[in-house]
Amino acid sequence: MTLVDVRDLVKHYAGTRSWFGLGPAQPPVRAVDGVSFSIASGRTLGLVGESGSGKTTVGRTMLRLQEPTAGKVLFAEHDVFALDAARLRALRRRMQIVFQDPYSSLNPRMTVEETLREPLQIHGLHGQVSALLDEVGLDAAFAKRYPHELSGGQRQRVGIARALSVEPQFVVCDEPVSALDVSVQAQVLNLLADLQARRRLTYLFIAHDLAVVRHIADDVAVMYLGKLVERAPAAEIYAQPRHPYTRALLSAIPEPNPRATKRRIVLAGDIPSPAHPPSGCPFHPRCPHPRKSERCRTEPPPLREITPGHLAACHYAAEPM
Amino acid sequence: MTTETSGGVGALLRVRDLKTYFVTEHGKGTARAVDDVSFDLYPGETLGIVGESGCGKTVTSLSILRLIPEPPGHILPGSLIEFEGRNLLALPAPELRAVRGNQIAMIFQEPMTSLNPVFTVGDQIAEAAIIHQHLSRGAARARAIEMLQLVGIPDPGERVDHYPHQLSGGMRQRVMIAMALVCHPKVLIADEPTTALDVTIQAQILELLDRLQKELGMAVLLITHDLGVVAGHADRVVVMYAGRVVETAQTDELFEHPTHPYTEGLLAAVPRIDAPRARLHAIPGQVPAATAWPTGCRFRPRCPYAWDKCLTEPPLLETGTPGHTARCWLVTEPERRQASR
């Protein structure tokens, strides 16, 4: 059953004006430019992309932490963008977010207990702080500590406990392990998987690292310059990536295996600015596909089904590279 | 036998018994960030130093060029950093400056904070050539353009007059590399050179470093937290934990036969795409504080094999097979590994 349904989500940021606001307006930054996906209850969608791809903006706009430019998000049949403030607040209880940097997202002047108690008070709930701490693998003694007394991994556990305190159904995990060392990253990934199983949570797991996503996601969507370029079940996308960008991303992952013989596709150039996206296919200036043609420069490829359940936005996705 | 002071014949850079401590604020004691580190760097090789936050890898690299702020930091007497037969720690300041940025150069993790925002990239690349090689301004500018070309920046004649903010993150890191290599150093210290970059840009920069090393024949000290980066780009690896070297080996050997339980745990904790999807192996607990390293073996509180000896006797770096050392009692008592499985 679909819990979250995102349809043609658009978020543009107005371009700034030069000359202290008197100059000509710059073109808008097309952070998210028509993104659609759905997540079934109890599943995890991994949303992957590099800096500036718009993946974080998708997560934040879905929860209405910022207002969308256009599009629709249905959460358990509720139209999230049409709700008034009171009903939005009630719905927020059911959808929460865990941020990347647990240090800047925790109030340094609040103890762990105060941090965890606040959402309970706002929503009029009676949760046990000690039970929450226990669930995320922290000793009850942590309740009296301040964020600066915690390690990065412990802070992220507090961030997770805060999101879970109001018993949500859906959690946006925005790069929750990117700031952590690899040994601690594994602890937090395992914790997120355990919590999902125990509480039957639905996740949108946002990350830049396809290897991390592989360990948690059921389905994977890849973003480039505000658009989805590929979407498929996880097993499928790793075994047979269809979009040249996904192929390049996968091949660029440094494998901890000195004898690896995989062919590395090194993309030329930088990611263009989302204020000036290229014409046609947004990936065409960097695309290594041998079939790249004039069509790629002029005609934006739609996200279309290549094999059942496997979508890619490339004119030549069905052809080998 | 212990190998902590032996070896190093023919090495370009020998680090011996390096101890760099920091006095902490609020009287919390001394942070022993680097605590008795030894390794050699040979001409033309890439030596990877790998470890997690707080293991001392960056302090080690800063100590080599004496870039540790004093106070609060200090390099203890008895430490040795020998470059071409001279102890850098004993060099007078002017002689040290003639080495730094000239024969030993360094690139840092954050290209934006390491570039000066008010000078053009050309000026910044030319500076070292003017200081160390006494080039004229015109000749130095020509050299800067040449360097930009070498590191793969398009339109170098135009880019030479750009300011750092006009460049992307990947381009800035290329400029940093151009600055470091302008005097053709014998040693390049690359401290997390790709950590701040996206994975497709990281691939470009690592490929560039590999190419430049072959062309210029320099030795590279590659400092990283990423075992994947080490696997693809280092000839030998030094694994650090809690201010110490815990394992050293040829790269192939290290990944095939990790000996130290920390190396083994770290390898199992890396999410990867080339193995069946399985629950990740997490190392329990966390890295201890540098002001209070555990007694005995510093990895003991997180080690699945630890026994009573590990609590009381700090292990030495023991040689298992030639060229492969590990700071673990399992090297001398390998049967313990099977027993605790």
Topology, element by element:
The complex is a heterodimer of chains A (321) and B (341).
Chain A: E1 2-13, H1 18-21, E2 29-40, E3 44-48, H2 55-62, E4 70-75, E5 78-79, H3 85-92, E6 95-98, H4 112-122, H5 129-135, H6 152-164, E7 170-174, H7 182-199, E8 202-207, H8 210-214, E9 219-224, E10 227-233, H9 234-239, H10 244-252, H11 294-298, E11 304-307, E12 310-312
Parallel strand pairs in A: 3-8, 3-9, 6-7, 7-8
Antiparallel strand pairs in A: 1-2, 1-4, 4-5, 9-10, 10-12, 11-12
Helix pairs in contact in A: 6-7
Chain B: E1 13-23, E2 30-41, E3 46-50, H1 57-64, E4 73-75, E5 80-83, E6 86-87, H2 93-99, E7 104-107, H3 111-114, H4 121-133, H5 137-150, H6 156-159, H7 169-181, E8 187-191, H8 199-216, E9 219-224, H9 227-233, E10 236-241, E11 244-250, H10 251-256, H11 261-269, H12 308-312, E12 317-319, E13 325-327, H13 335-339
Parallel strand pairs in B: 3-9, 3-10, 7-8, 8-9
Antiparallel strand pairs in B: 1-2, 1-4, 1-5, 5-6, 10-11, 11-13, 12-13
Helix pairs in contact in B: 4-5, 4-7, 5-7, 7-8
- What is the rounded Rg of chain A? 21 Å
Number of strands of chain A: 12
Largest interface between protein chains, with number of residues from each side: A-B, 45 and 44 residues
For the biggest β-sheet of chain B, the strand order reads 7-8-9-3-10-11-13-12
Q: Terminal Cα separation of chain A, in Å?
A: 36 Å
How much is the radius of gyration of chain B in Å? 21 Å
Briefly note the structural class of the backbone of chain B.
alpha/beta
The major beta sheet of chain A can be summarized as:
8 strands, mixed
Reported for the largest beta sheet of chain B, the result is:
8 strands, mixed
- Secondary-structure element sequence of chain B? EEEHEEEHEHHHHHEHEHEEHHHEEH
Helical segment tally of chain B? 13
Oligomer: heterodimer
Overall pLDDT confidence of chain B? 91
> Unreliable runs of chain B, pLDDT <50, ≥5 residues?
1-6
Cα-to-Cα separation, first versus last residue of chain B = 27 Å
Low-confidence stretches of chain A: none
- Order of secondary-structure elements of chain A: EHEEHEEHEHHHEHEHEEHHHEE
By secondary-structure content and strand pairing, the structural class of chain A works out as alpha/beta
Global morphology of chain B? globular
